[in-house]
Amino acid sequence: MTRVVVLAGGVGGSRFCLGLRAALEGRVDAAAPASGFDIVVNTGDDLWLSGVRLQPDVDSIVYALAGVNDTERGWGRAGDSERVNSELQEWRAGWPWFTLGDLDLGTHLARTGWLREGSTPTQVIERMSARWPLGARLLPMTDAEVDTRVVLEDGRVMHFQEWWTRHRAALRPARFENPGIDAVVPAPGVLEALAAADLVLIAPSNPVVSIGPILAVPGIHDAVRSARGRVVGVSPIIGGRVVRGMADVCLSAIGVETSALAVAAHYGARSGGGLLDDWLIAEEDAASAADIARVGIRPVVTPLWMRDAATSAALAEAALQTAGH
C-alpha cells in the first residue's frame, strides 16, 4: 500500500487533492488495497470573525472532497444563501466585503462550539471529516493559531484575508508573517505521516501563503526533506503566469520571479538542502526544463491545467508515475 502525503491549501490544492483521490481510486482492484492519502492543510488563512473561527483552506478541501463546494466561485458551499450575512451587515458586524454563506456559517458555528468546548483543531477536523466520505485524512499544519499577517510597504499591518479579499492584493506587501510560528509544533500525526510516506506531493498551491506557512512550522520542512520516498512538486505557474489568484504579487514580495524555474529554485533541490526531487511543469514552460535540471531538480513536462475532474486526475496520475508509484 502506497502512503501519500500532500501539502496543500487554496483552490489549487483542493482541485489537486480531488484529482489525486480519483487517480488512487482508479488503481484499486481486488488485488490492490486502497492507498493511504493524507493532506497537511495550511491554516495560516484562519481567522476569527463575528465571534466564529474560520478555516478557509480546510473548508475548501473538505467541501471539494465532499462534493458540496461551489465550483463557480471557487470557495464556500454550492447553493448557499446569504441571509445571515445580510443581517450581520445591517448590524455593521463582521466585514461587509467578506461574505459568509448560511451553510458555511453553520460549519463555522459548529467548529467554534467544539473549540470552545476544548477540542483542538485536529479533533475538530476529525469531526468534520466524519460527516462525508472524503477518501483522505486531513491534518492541520498545527493546532496553534498562527494567522498570516501582511506587512505593507507603508508599514500598515493587516490580516491576510483583508489584503487578499478586500484589497485584491493591490496594496504592495513588504513581507508576510505568521506571528508566533517559531514556537509552535506540528499538529499530531503530521510528522508521523511524513515519516511513513512513500511519496510526498507539494500541490500547485500558492508557494508563499499556502505552502509557505506549512513549511514554516518547526519540524515540517526537515520532515519533508528527510522523507524516505520522493518529493514531487507541481508548479502553480503555467506559461509564466499564475493559474488563479494573485500569487505573483506574493512571489514578488519575497523576491521570486513568477516562473516555473524560479518557484522550483525557491523550494530548492533536496540534494542541496531543499525539498524537491521532481518538479512537474507545464508544456508551456518546457523551455525551462534544462535550467531546472541544472538547479538539481528533475523536470517533468506534462499538462497542468485542471479544467475538470478528468484533467485533475490525469495530473495527479502524472505525479504518481513521476515518483514510480
Verbal overview:
Helices cover 38% and strands 17% of the residues. The chain has 325 residues and is an alpha/beta fold. It has one domain: Rossmann fold, CATH 3.40.50. A seven-stranded parallel β-sheet has the order 5-2-1-9-10-13-14, with helices on both faces. Strands 7-6-8 form a three-stranded antiparallel β-sheet. It has a two-stranded antiparallel ribbon with strand order 3-4. The mean pLDDT is 94.
Descriptors:
alpha/beta; 7-stranded parallel sheet; Rossmann fold; 14 strands; 13 helices; 3-stranded antiparallel sheet; 325 residues; globular
SSE diagram, text form:
Layout: E1 3-8, H1 10-26, E2 36-41, E3 47-49, E4 52-54, H2 56-66, H3 83-90, H4 102-116, H5 121-129, E5 137-140, E6 149-152, E7 157-159, H6 160-166, E8 173-177, H7 190-196, E9 199-202, H8 211-216, H9 220-225, E10 230-234, E11 237-238, E12 241-242, H10 247-253, H11 260-267, E13 278-281, H12 289-295, E14 298-301, H13 309-322
Parallel strand pairs: 1-2, 1-9, 2-5, 9-10, 10-13, 13-14
Antiparallel strand pairs: 3-4, 6-7, 6-8, 11-12
Helix pairs in contact: 1-2, 1-13, 4-5, 11-12
